[in-house]
Amino acid sequence: MASSSLYSLPPLSNGLILFLLAINSLLCIPHLAQSSSCRNPPIIFNFGDSNSDTGGLVAGLGFPLRFPHGRTYFRRSTGRLSDGRLLIDFLCQSLNTNLLSPYLDSLGSSFSNGANFAIAGSTTLPKNVPFALNIQVMQFKHFKYRSAELASTGVSGLIGYDKFGDALYMIDIGQNDIADSFAKGLSYVQVIKYIPSILTEIKNAINEIYDEGGRNFWVHNTGPLGCLPQKLALVKNVSQDLDSFGCISSYNAAAKLFNEGLHRICTGLRSEMKDARIVYVDVFAIKLDVIANSTKYGFSNPLMACCGAGGPPYNYEREVSCGFPGYEVCDETSRFVSWDGVHYTEAANSVVASKILSMDHSTPRLAFDFFCH
């Protein structure tokens, strides 16, 4: 590990300004766990990719995620691709419930409050490969019937059959489908033609969970893919396709089309499933606001990774991942949006969580702690 002068504090006057901005942004962020009035937190099942993977990649494949991952909150690597808590961690804490254990983690895990099926790198397509969305749903079905079976015999700490109907089912996937399509060399037109197939898989997943008794769904759209330092560093001729924020226009345009389709699907399912609650959350708008107005939230270098290699402007090199030989990491007191070029820092995740909890970006405007009742 090395600390580069690239991350040293600016002159005192500028540093003081950034410090005050950071303090101001922290004051605007609610104390998510402590302020919650939730007395009966719901059981939660989560499906997704690395944005909500709380250790599944490490548990399932033994993939090494080394320190400084986890340095900010856990003080050790926990299998999360961040320096600390993920968005899902903050949302769980807002309900006074334990952080979700990865479904594949057999050591020291508790599944009394649900399970996390999200695995880094997951996509919706192709199907039937680890750990595509439909595989995660199949894992959930196995978990449901096995847990209910054991609970019926008196085994404690497991979820009984009658509890699955009141559970909250969270879905956050699709980013890798779009990103991988661009990475394979597909044109923008080819990528957007692929989007309906991705959306169909998400719709099918919701339908399957509904058929298993699920009635409460919390669906995140995908973020501004074109603002990730990884994409900015790797895409050829990127300067010809940048918007006013410095992000890749075509990537963000594809993400927006995906999000519009996901919104329509949630609206349609809401009409079909009269007894279900399906909340669509515009995470794209929240994350783009954090990037576009980074100084407002006390962040600097919103398009540069905290942990990586290569230095400005993006500090990302494909051959040098965070935690592996050759990486550099910013000071712990620094305020970066991006942790490793793809995933957010705990500081950024906390801002995103606070905005989600405000209901300003939810359709319908249903409070997250509604599911406590």
From TrEMBL:
<dbReference type="InterPro" id="IPR001087">
    <property type="entry name" value="GDSL"/>
</dbReference>
<comment type="similarity">
    <text>Belongs to the 'GDSL' lipolytic enzyme family.</text>
</comment>
<keyword id="KW-0732">Signal</keyword>
<keyword id="KW-0378">Hydrolase</keyword>
<protein>
    <submittedName>
        <fullName>GDSL-like Lipase/Acylhydrolase superfamily protein</fullName>
    </submittedName>
</protein>
<dbReference type="Pfam" id="PF00657">
    <property type="entry name" value="Lipase_GDSL"/>
</dbReference>
<dbReference type="InterPro" id="IPR035669">
    <property type="entry name" value="SGNH_plant_lipase-like"/>
</dbReference>
<dbReference type="InterPro" id="IPR036514">
    <property type="entry name" value="SGNH_hydro_sf"/>
</dbReference>
<feature type="signal peptide">
    <location>
        <begin position="1"/>
        <end position="35"/>
    </location>
</feature>
<dbReference type="GO" id="GO:0016788">
    <property type="term" value="F:hydrolase activity, acting on ester bonds"/>
</dbReference>
<keyword id="KW-0325">Glycoprotein</keyword>
